[in-house]
């Protein structure tokens, strides 16, 4: 099977299926990625440990801080105590909440994430007015400055001397 075909099937599996955790499986939240296909997670009870990513997800599915996973426990693991069995997207989280299978400790976190992504832009205050003419004539000195380069300061006097 080619890499593209494998990726297509893995992505369809993650996005399409509705996964319900079994008795042994847990829903966890990703706290960070120390590397080497390991992820630091936290359970709803506050327990922290490392989980490993199976080879079928590697280079096909990306997991970032704050994502939710379903993991299978590993008995013989000391540091790595579980393996990822499913990556939950927003739709999966909503359906698990509707079914009552979502842990209460994660309810607030999931709601904050969905609200921050779906929040409409905040209206401007009456005292704050923006005009495009003022923005274009402003000084650009507050933009990103590359600290790896030597910065030359030019003054208006030097510019007027060069023109004369």
Strand content: 15-25%
List the strand order in the largest sheet: 1-2-3-5-4
* Number of helices, counting only DSSP H or I runs of 4 residues or more: 5
Poorly predicted runs of 5 or more residues: 121-125, 127-133
Q: Quick one: biggest sheet? A: 5 strands, mixed, barrel
Distance between the termini: 71 Å
Shape: elongated
N-to-C SSE string, H for helix and E for strand? HEEEEEHHHH
Can you count the beta strands? 5
Q: Supply the helix-strand structural class.
A: alpha+beta
| Whole-angstrom Rg | 25 Å
- Helix fraction bin: 25-40%
Mean pLDDT: 79
What descriptive keywords fit this protein?
single chain; 164 residues; alpha+beta; 5-stranded mixed barrel; 32% helix; 22% strand
Fold and architecture overview:
With 164 residues, the chain is an alpha+beta fold. 32% of the residues lie in helices and 22% in strands. It has helices at residues 3-16, 90-99, 104-118, 132-137, 156-163; strands at 26-35, 38-43, 48-52, 68-73, 80-88. Strands 1-2-3-5-4 form a five-stranded mixed β-barrel. The longest helix is centred in the last third of the chain and has 15 residues, at 104-118. The protein is elongated. The model is unreliable at 121-125 and 127-133 (pLDDT under 50).
Write the layout of secondary structure elements.
Layout: H1 3-16, E1 26-35, E2 38-43, E3 48-52, E4 68-73, E5 80-88, H2 90-99, H3 104-118, H4 132-137, H5 156-163
Parallel strand pairs: 3-5
Antiparallel strand pairs: 1-2, 1-4, 2-3, 4-5
């Amino acid at each position: 099977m080619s890499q593209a075909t494998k990726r297509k099937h893995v992505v369809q599996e993650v996005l399409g299926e509705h996964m319900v955790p079994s008795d042994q499986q847990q829903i966890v939240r990703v706290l960070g990625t120390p590397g080497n296909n390991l992820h630091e997670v936290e359970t709803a009870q506050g327990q922290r440990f490392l989980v490993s990513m199976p080879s079928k997800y590697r280079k096909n599915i990306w997991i970032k801080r704050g994502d939710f996973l379903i993991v299978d426990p590993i008995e013989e693991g000391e540091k790595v105590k579980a393996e990822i069995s499913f990556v939950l997207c927003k739709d999966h989280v909503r359906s698990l909440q509707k079914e009552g299978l979502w842990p209460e400790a994660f309810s607030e976190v999931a709601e904050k994430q969905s609200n921050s992504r779906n929040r409409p832009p905040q209206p401007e205050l009456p005292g704050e007015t923006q005009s495009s003419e003022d923005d274009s004539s402003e000084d650009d000195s507050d933009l990103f400055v590359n600290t790896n380069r030597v910065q030359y300061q030019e003054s208006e006097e030097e510019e007027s001397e060069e023109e004369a």
